[in-house]
Write the structure tokens for this entry.
Amino acid sequence: MEDAHTYMISTAPAVEGLFKLLNEYGWHKMRALAERTYAKTQEELEHHTADFNSVNVAREVIAGSILQIAFIAIKRYSVFNVKSENALDFERQMNRLISESPNTRAKTPFSLPKKFCVGRDIGHLPLGMLVYAARNQYNHFYANHLDVVNEVVFNHLHDMWPNPGNGFSFNINDGNNFYCYSMLAALGWTDNADALGYGHYKKDLMEMLQIEP
């Protein structure tokens, strides 16, 4: 019978492979950016710009797949204790705003789903909530409106990082379809000087699932 530990083991090869692909696409974009810098003609500039943008959708799909695997892990196996004080304060502030806004979309008291109120806080929200919102947005990227909870998570991130740069965005009203790679960056699951993002992903998942190293 599968449990949290066996889920992490069985999905590890796939997730590691996805992170390696992300790394390769990152190097692809860096090479294309360097080549664009040295373009001598408009035609060369356009060619290298197209090459730079060519991997964007693939990168978002890979990031979305990572978020999907993390979402399933949390939904099935996360160990909820109590909501953090930041999360409780976030709920209080949201319900205050709802009570003061007669035209709000929210028809019931605002509450963050307990199962996803796990992991370290990012801003005022638990890490699990960022996975929750990003996965849901990815699965419904053509929807006119996200559910209120998902929309609120993205709005909170956009308030914290209104202009993150580097092509990232948390503004779900900016006309883009995908925000998965931006969310991996917010989670700290992208590559850095030390290692691929997989190590950070694994550490966070093991904490949320309460698996011993």
Summary: The chain has one domain: 4-209. The chain is about 60% helix and 0% strand. The CA atoms of residues 157 and 170 lie 6 Å apart. The mean pLDDT is 87.
